[in-house]
């Protein structure tokens, strides 16, 4: 049995908020540099250069990568031999978000959906918990900007639509989004499950490192096909035309019901931010 | 389509507004105002009620941005563009009232483009997700209205060499249509 104190969780979440919002992952920078080599549009190349420069400036000058520092989405992997001591776990996480967004000079974007009055501290976080074996305690913090979140959709297809219907829906969603979600984007897809499960696995797909092959060969081949179709659309960097509309398509699947084919498309801007720590 | 940046100054001269073409790359310096969702609703509500605005929009350039808080020693935090379509509902009235330029990201509605043609206004795309770089173009920032809106308050910014791309011009040319059409490959994305 391993004991984890919630004060340590708060402090870890605080640091993850600041890190995720200012330091872009090397996997993303690598893919952007690769896109810069292959992009044909001069405006597209200029956009990609500025995006790469922005990541350098953000990291060295400790300025957020983007003014939309997002809603704090937290994924927890908790080993079933872990004992959490102190405050209630969600309270500890929200306190970490509160401190991180204040101390990191990050933007506070959460508000009441009806009155639209801003809470001023960017809480509450959206927390997803998974129970795993052993004594693992892993926190992943993914600040989600809403320029791209607004372009995301869930569709409950009838089985007759088949995988071809799902593929067309995914490509169509990216085409209709155009420049709005800040391409080049990363596309998280959830195939199957229930309504909410499809959305959750689509979001989780965004956490996979760019360039890392899907272990399922069927999904890997589907990802490659969709990426090719999306990048032939011409939308390009920031939607102004070019060959780089998406950096990657990541698909997660889950068994579903005889009556349905849920398809979730979670669009992520080029600022594919997440930071993780194990306590 | 010229990749050579052209230096332009805000407030924009109408000769400059009329001469900018979709696909031009520009570096903007001068004084601009900011406003996004909540500020646009307030502006249009006031105009429709016949009330004066607490700042001038005639002849101005508005930047759709909700910056992060300014850290010590800096005028502003990260300050990249937000998605423009959410302002489409409000923009035609502001253009009619004399707004000359808009800076944001993403394509605009037919109604906004028609108002731009009719009243003479230009729409610039800034590069979304480059908040840190854009922050360095802002030399001074001051809240001029609705401080209680926090990141959505209206600010006056002094900017220098802000990198922009003319997305939609006074003739209705739109890089969000022509750019993708040019780079679309024969094997259609939608089979």
Structural account:
- The complex is a heterodimer of chains A (279) and B (191).
- Chain A has 279 residues and is an alpha/beta fold.
- Chain A folds into two domains: 101 residues, Dihydrodipicolinate Reductase, domain 2 (2-Layer Sandwich), CATH 3.30.360; 125 residues, no CATH class.
- In chain A, 40% of the residues lie in helices and 24% in strands.
- Chain A is built from eight helices and ten strands.
- In chain A, 49% of the residues are buried.
- Chain B is of the alpha/beta class.
- Chain B has a single domain, classed as Alpha-Beta Barrel (fumarase).
- Chain B is 26% helix and 26% strand.
- Chain B has a five-stranded mixed β-barrel with strand order 2-3-4-5-7.
- In chain B, strand 3, helix 3 and strand 4 form a beta-alpha-beta unit.
Key words describing this protein structure:
heterodimer; A: 279 residues; alpha/beta; Dihydrodipicolinate Reductase, domain 2; four-stranded mixed sheet; 8 helices; globular; B: 191 residues; fumarase; five-stranded mixed beta barrel; 26% strand
- CATH class category name of chain B: Alpha Beta
Count of domain modules of chain B: 1
Task: Extract low-pLDDT stretches of chain A.
Answer: none
Percent strand of chain A: 15-25%
* Count of β-strands of chain B: 7
Strand order of the largest sheet of chain A: 4-2-5-10
Care to count the β-strands of chain A? Answer: 10
* Mean pLDDT metric of chain A: 98
Largest interface: A-B, 57 and 54 residues
């Amino acid at each position: 049995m391993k004991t984890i104190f919630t004060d340590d969780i708060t402090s870890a979440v605080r640091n993850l908020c600041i890190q995720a919002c200012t330091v872009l992952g090397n996997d993303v920078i690598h893919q952007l540099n690769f896109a810069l080599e292959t992009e044909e549009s001069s405006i597209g190349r200029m956009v990609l250069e500025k995006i790469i420069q922005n990541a350098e400036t953000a990291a060295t000058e400790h300025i957020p990568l983007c003014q939309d520092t997002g809603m704090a989405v937290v994924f927890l992997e908790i080993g079933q031999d872990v004992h959490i001591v102190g405050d209630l776990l969600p309270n500890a996480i929200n306190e970490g978000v509160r401190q991180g967004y204040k101390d990191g000079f990050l933007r506070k974007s959460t508000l009441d959906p009806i009155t639209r009055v801003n809470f001023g501290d960017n809480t509450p976080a959206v927390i997803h918990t998974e129970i795993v074996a052993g004594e693992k305690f892993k926190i992943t913090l993914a600040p989600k900007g809403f320029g791209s979140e607004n372009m995301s959709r869930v569709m409950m297809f009838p089985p007759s639509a088949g995988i071809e219907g799902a593929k067309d829906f995914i490509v169509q969603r990216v085409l209709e989004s155009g420049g709005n979600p800040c391409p080049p984007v990363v596309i998280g897809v959830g195939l199957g499950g229930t309504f909410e499960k499809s959305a959750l696995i689509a979001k989780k797909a965004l956490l996979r490192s760019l360039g890392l092959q899907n272990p399922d060969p069927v999904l890997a081949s589907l990802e490659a096909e969709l990426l090719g179709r999306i990048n032939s659309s011409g939308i390009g960097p920031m939607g102004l035309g070019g060959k780089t509309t998406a950096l990657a398509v990541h698909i997660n699947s889950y068994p579903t019901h005889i009556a349905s084919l849920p398809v979730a498309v979670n669009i992520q801007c080029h600022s594919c931010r997440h930071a993780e720590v194990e306590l | 389509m010229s990749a050579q940046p052209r230096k332009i100054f805000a407030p924009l001269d109408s000769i400059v507004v009329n001469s900018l073409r979709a696909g031009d790359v520009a570096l903007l310096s001068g004084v601009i105002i900011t406003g996004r969702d909540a500020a646009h609703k307030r502006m249009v509500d006031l105009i429709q009620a016949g009330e004066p605005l607490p700042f001038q929009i005639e002849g101005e350039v508005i930047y759709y941005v909700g910056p992060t808080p300014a850290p010590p020693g800096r005028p502003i935090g990260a300050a990249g563009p937000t998605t423009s379509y959410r302002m489409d509902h409000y923009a035609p009235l502001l253009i009619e009232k004399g707004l000359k330029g808009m800076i944001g990201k993403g394509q605009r509605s037919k109604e906004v483009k028609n108002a731009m043609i009719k009243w003479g206004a230009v729409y610039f795309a800034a590069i979304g997700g480059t908040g840190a770089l854009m922050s360095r173009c802002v030399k001074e920032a001051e809240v001029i209205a609705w401080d209680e809106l926090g990141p959505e308050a209206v600010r006056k910014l002094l900017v220098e060499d802000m990198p922009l791309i003319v997305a939609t011009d006074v003739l209705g040319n739109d890089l969000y249509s022509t750019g993708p059409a040019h780079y679309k490959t024969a094997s259609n994305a939608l089979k």
